[in-house]
Amino acid sequence: MTMIESLPGYAEAEAVAKARGSNLVDMISAYLAGVAAGGDAVTVMRTPDEVRDHFGKLMDETSQDV
C-alpha cells in the first residue's frame, strides 16, 4: 500500500473513479504531473553573500524589537 492509498478518503475516491471508468492512480499521477509542470523554479541555494545579507537583516530586525 502506498502513502496515498493509506489516506482516509482514498477508498471512496477509488470507488468513484472506478464507477466512472477511470483509474484513480492515473488521475492522481496526471494531476501531480500538471502541478509539477506548471510550477516555477525554486531557488534552493544562495551565494554566501546572499545568505549573510539575509540573516544580517533578520538579526537587525530582531535586535530592534528588544
List key phrases describing it:
single chain, mainly alpha, elongated, 66 residues
Structure, explained:
By secondary structure, the chain is mostly helical. The protein has one domain. It has three helices and no strands. It has helices at 10-19, 24-38, 48-65. The longest helix has 18 residues, at 48-65. The radius of gyration is 22 Å and the shape is elongated. The protein starts with 9 loop residues before the first helix and ends with a helix.
Give a nutshell description of this structure.
By secondary structure, the protein is mostly helical.
Q: Topology, please?
A:
Blueprint: H1 10-19, H2 24-38, H3 48-65
Task: Name the average pLDDT.
Answer: 74
Shape assignment: elongated
Calculate Rg over CA atoms.
22 Å
Tell me the number of helical segments per DSSP (H or I, 4 or more residues long): 3
What is the β-strand count? 0
Tell me the distance between the termini: 51 Å
Structural class: mainly alpha
Please indicate the count of domains: 1
Poorly predicted segments: none
Order of helices and strands: HHH
Instruction: Characterize the main sheet.
Output: none
Strand content: under 5%
Helix content range: 55-70%
